[in-house]
């Protein structure tokens, strides 16, 4: 199998493992951007070594096999889908962020590299001239305005914004000539450089602009950034495409995982997955990882999505303001750890309602996963313990207890440190300047097996 030919870090001296506890799950200094994992950044991304090790183990134990299906209810940038394909599995996933759906498909679906190279040559044959005309039009006062792109004022230099739009138009034409898959590959290249061209501060996943004095000297070369990233991504795709079975399927649903099996025209089939590997959000998008903010401008410019659509991503996430679910008081009966957390939050007059909203939505996903995963098959939930109102939220214990209430059987609690991840290490929970609280520095992998329905 292609996935087994790659060098992996399993923590056992001979490369063979007999238990998941044998693995050093921190994977410090491991390359987390190999193959198509390196096509595009994404906040709080699960490192590929985690699904790689899990899939190696469960295949070696005969619990999963070639041609089985791995499911991820929170696809993100497609880490699980890519590793599933590398291990000879079909991959299926959900995400409510359209940019995440695009990234997951582009990274997991192998392409014919000779066709990709031809498309590159076609695009670059006249791209430089097109960008030069866009710059001339801007200088003549006849360029595209930010409003035409639904981009908020003050986030991009000009004429670079017009040049980014020009690249997107050229990609549209390229997609018409070649295929949707080829167009998608070029769109994530454009998406990746969009944040570099913008005034977005490096290393931030929320929307923070660089200081005004730095904006004055910010003059990126759109053509050079695009070509450099395109050629790097083609190389990564070539290596990936050579390792995977092109006959396998990847299905990424632009749909809510809380209703995964009942989504109109885009449902996941019950009893269809042989293993689940996922990294749920640490909390509601508004106060933890703002995936929608990270994705907003790249999705609008590169993907043609609307401003309102992207603004709704964080509101639609677990615990978001757009959720239509009612509070579920029984959760405190089913999870003693959640009950103790809620008692502490109420004593402190903290954010108990926000905690309830998030865990209620999270529980709905657990119930859907129980329907999708075949009886007795494994699921791995990679979770971190955040703080709310300076109260530690034991997400690993809440996950274990609520999964057990659904009918899952507990197997392992595997701790790991987070050596490097695009996350803040502290925040200001009371919004008081200078007052901070610790956030996530470690994770736990909660391993359960599906109910025997």
Overall morphology: globular
Major pleated sheet:
7 strands, mixed
Mean pLDDT rating: 90
* Count of discrete alpha- or pi-helical segments spanning 4 or more residues: 15
Low-confidence stretches: 1-5, 9-14, 421-440
Q: Give the count of structural domains.
A: 2
Query: Which secondary-structure class do the elements indicate?
Result: alpha/beta
How would you write the strand order of the largest sheet? Answer: 3-2-1-4-5-11-8
N to C succession of SSEs:
HHEHEHHHHHHEEHHHHHEEEHEEEE
Q: Level of helix content?
A: 40-55%
- Overall number of strands: 11
* CATH class (first level) name of the largest domain: Alpha Beta
Cα(first) to Cα(last) distance is 32 Å
What is the CATH architecture term of the largest domain? Answer: 3-Layer(aba) Sandwich
In CATH terms, what is the fold-level topology of the largest domain? Rossmann fold
Catalytic activity: a 2'-deoxycytidine in DNA + S-adenosyl-L-methionine = an N(4)-methyl-2'-deoxycytidine in DNA + S-adenosyl-L-homocysteine + H(+)
Protein name: site-specific DNA-methyltransferase (cytosine-N(4)-specific)
Family: Belongs to the N(4)/N(6)-methyltransferase family. N(4) subfamily.
Enzyme class: transferase
Task: Name the features.
Rossmann fold, single chain, 2 domains, DNA binding, alpha/beta, 11% strand, site-specific DNA-methyltransferase (cytosine-N4-specific) activity, seven-stranded mixed beta sheet, two-stranded antiparallel sheet, MeTrfase_CN4_CS, 453 residues
Structure explained in plain terms:
With 453 residues, the chain is an alpha/beta fold. It has 2 domains: 2-98 and 252-283 and 318-449, Vaccinia Virus protein VP39 (Rossmann fold, 3-Layer(aba) Sandwich); 113-243, no CATH class. 43% of the residues lie in helices and 11% in strands. The strands form 3 sheets. A 7-stranded mixed beta sheet has the order 3-2-1-4-5-11-8, sandwiched between helices. A two-stranded antiparallel sheet has the order 6-7. The chain has a two-stranded antiparallel sheet with strand order 9-10. The longest helix is centred in the first third of the chain and has 27 residues, at 113-139.
